[in-house]
Design brief:
- The chain is an all-alpha fold and 78 residues long.
- The longest helix is centred in the first third of the chain and has 31 residues, at 3-33.
- Helices cover 79% and strands 0% of the residues.
- It has three helices and no strands.
- Helix 2 packs across helix 3 (60-76).
């Protein structure tokens, strides 16, 4: 692969990694302080609970979707 494609891929992986690190931080802040966190809109916990509920209601399709998401997240961390 050309060097410039490797650099772009590296930047994308780094930005994705930062985003994945911010999600747990936002969850912890909202659990500790509720919806009063100044820079968060207050729906992170609700969105996560909705995603878990939707995947649970989807049965086998939800499990497959979850497996695909985990595969993609694991691939970004390499």
């Amino acid at each position: 692969m050309p060097d410039w494609l490797d650099k772009i891929r590296g930047w994308i992986v780094q930005v994705g990694g930062i985003g994945l690190m911010l999600i747990p931080l936002a969850l912890i802040l909202q659990v500790l302080f509720g919806q009063n966190v100044e820079f968060l809109d207050g729906t992170i916990v609700n969105n996560l609970m909705g995603l878990i509920r939707d995947l649970g209601n989807a049965g086998l399709v939800g499990l497959i979707a979850l497996a695909i998401l985990l595969y993609l997240f694991r691939g970004m961390s390499k």
